[in-house]
Amino acid sequence: LLINYKFVFNGYHIIRQYSMTKLIICNWKMNLGSQNSIEFLNQIEMAASNKDNKFIVCPPYTSLELVGNNIKEKQSDWALGAQNCSDQEDGARTGDISASMLETLGCQYVILGHSERRQYHLEDSKTVKMKALKALQHQLIPIVCVGETEEAYNQGKTQEVLKKQLEESVPSKQCVVAYEPVWAIGTGKVPQVEEIEETHHFIQSVLQEFGFSNVSIVYGGSVKANNITEILGQPSVSGVLIGGASIKPESMNPIVSKLSI
Length: 261
Ligand code: PEP
What we know:
Layout: E1 2-9, E2 12-19, E3 22-27, H1 34-41, E4 53-58, H2 64-73, E5 79-82, H3 99-104, E6 109-112, H4 115-120, H5 125-137, E7 141-146, H6 150-154, H7 158-169, E8 176-179, H8 193-209, E9 216-220, H9 228-232, E10 239-242, H10 249-260
Parallel strand pairs: 3-4, 3-10, 4-5, 5-6, 6-7, 7-8, 8-9, 9-10
Antiparallel strand pairs: 1-2
Helix pairs in contact: 1-2, 5-7, 7-8
The structure holds phosphoenolpyruvate.
């Protein structure tokens, strides 16, 4: 189901068509290794996707195959995603995992350029773009993460930072963009929904400038059962990326049941 909605941004009248199906992307980060991942999934009501929501679970590499098989066994329509991939096809890249390997495991999505990778692995936007191109060659939809630090936010530089990240890391309109303010990740701090709307509109207008229209933009940063409905209710929000709340049954089950109603 596609909905038309109009907004004015910087004096431009923008008409956007968006899908009602919202993406619920679960980023397990470096949690839930092989055995724990199955124990966790056995405590979650997984057959919960419906026409309004599509769940995408992104376990660590070592749990991908088990989780993929578990989803199939349960005849759930949850999709499988990875948290990173190499920008190279194959060869001498010790410790790396290729997009082709992820495709073989049944992944449909891959998170790229998460702020933790930018921070701890010094990944820059140009590398993220190369990874996204490689992912697209292997039928994986890149979920490209962008977001400003607290310092940039306080200095009023959010748009400047985002524009540069988008320009350098998004290669095509076939991507999902995840707007994740770094200061909101794992902190319990969440921007006002009006602020999320405004920033998503900004991202949309920048992408449109590059010729990429109708890109799905999801929000990430301290999403939990108590704020998910309001955030997903914003027209510019095509979904959410959930970290901490997606790895414990006591925080994930209330999210699943809220979205299944
Ligand atoms: C994330 O890691 O992308 C994230 C949004 O984490 P959290 O939900 O824990 O803030």
